[in-house]
Write a structure and sequence with these properties.
The chain starts with 11 loop residues before the first strand and ends in an 8-residue tail after the last strand. A 10-stranded antiparallel sheet has the order 9-10-11-12-22-19-18-14-16-15, with no helix packed on it. Strands 5-13-21-20-17 form a 5-stranded antiparallel sheet, with no helix packed on it. It has a 4-stranded antiparallel sheet with strand order 1-2-3-4, with no helix packed on it. The protein has one domain: Beta-galactosidase, Chain A, domain 5 (Distorted Sandwich). By secondary structure, the chain is mostly beta strands. It is 0% helix and 42% strand.
Length: 314
């Protein structure tokens, strides 16, 4: 039986601009919605509604705050800092989570739950149409930072913006990749022919399920049939994008209900992964970050919601 975590009570903030209403879960090491070590704890969006349509929800079966992927919304994951250079028992850093302990000599596994030995400090400032998250960490091995994410709804527009700022306050260069998993569930539509993902370039896709469950057609990924509960579609690297931010421009649409979202980033794509289950369909755009000691960098992602598609019946 599906345990609906979204019905439970967690620290949260509700924001609105009169067009969109969204519920954000707030980081808390004792009572927070997400307490695992894979994804950034800030900006977890439990629900978002626009013009009678819903865009996020619980896509997985069983909820556990310490389960690596028991998370919802447009959530972000950084590659860890310092993992390869430390020995067993040493300390490495996961941005937006804290300092973690390396338990053994195995390679880093994003699906493992690591011990958090330093949570850093969180500051959260909530307003009517935005929430500001600030995570400060003085980590081991010279990795320290101040990471800020502001989740805001644009006045007068059906638009959500993720604004990021990362200051390197340590002695080591921060080199990492970050991507957004984009766990969209537009109107809770099962993954199938009603869901299409559209790119500004002709996309080429290989991997699990392609040619059987899904296919790349010109600039779209389309599903050949509805996915069953145990089925997944996965490509570790879609091809076709260039080296400018113009290609970080992705649409996900539910052609049955007429609702869609356009995702635009202001950085070039480093990599573009695609994953879907029977409940969610996720383009995962990666960007590369390098921050020298004392340097501050910024980047942003804009989500534009729309409901102007022509509906059709499967």
């Amino acid at each position: 039986m599906c345990q609906k975590a979204l019905l439970l009570d967690f620290p949260k903030a509700i924001i609105s601009n009169g067009l969109i209403e969204a519920t954000l879960y707030l980081p808390d090491k004792q009572t927070g919605y997400y307490r695992a070590t894979r994804f950034d704890w800030s900006g977890v969006i439990g629900s978002l509604e626009y013009n009678g349509h819903s865009y996020f929800g619980q896509w997985f079966e069983n909820y556990d705050p310490y389960k690596h992927d028991a998370i919802v919304g447009p959530v972000e994951e950084f590659t860890p800092l310092g993992f390869e250079s430390i020995g067993v028992g040493g300390e490495f850093v996961q941005i937006g989570v804290g300092s973690l302990r390396r338990p053994d000599s195995q390679e880093y596994n994003r699906f493992s739950l690591y011990e958090i030995i330093n949570y850093g400090s969180w500051t959260v400032n909530s307003h009517d149409n935005n929430v500001e998250f600030i995570h400060r960490l003085a980590g081991g091995s010279g990795y320290s930072y101040e990471y800020q994410k502001v989740v805001s709804l644009t006045a007068g527009r059906p638009e959500l913006v993720l604004e990021h700022q990362l200051e390197n306050t340590g002695s080591q260069v921060i080199e990492t990749s970050v991507y957004n998993h984009n766990f969209f569930m537009i109107d809770s539509e099962p993954t199938g022919p009603a869901i299409r993902t559209i790119f500004p370039f002709d996309v080429h896709a290989e991997g699990r399920g392609f040619g059987i469950l899904a296919e790349a057609v010109n600039n779209e990924i389309q599903y050949l049939r509805q996915l069953r509960e145990s089925e997944h579609v996965y490509s570790s690297g879609l091809q076709g994008f260039g080296d400018t931010a113009e290609d970080y421009d992705i649409r996900i649409e539910n052609r049955k209900t007429g609702a869609g979202v356009r995702i635009k980033g202001d950085q070039p794509l480093e990599k573009l992964v695609f994953w879907s289950s029977s409940t969610t369909s996720c383009p995962e755009p990666y960007i590369r970050l390098r921050v020298e000691p004392g340097e501050v960098i910024t980047w942003s992602i804009v989500y534009e919601f729309y409901t102007s598609l022509t509906k059709y019946d499967q």
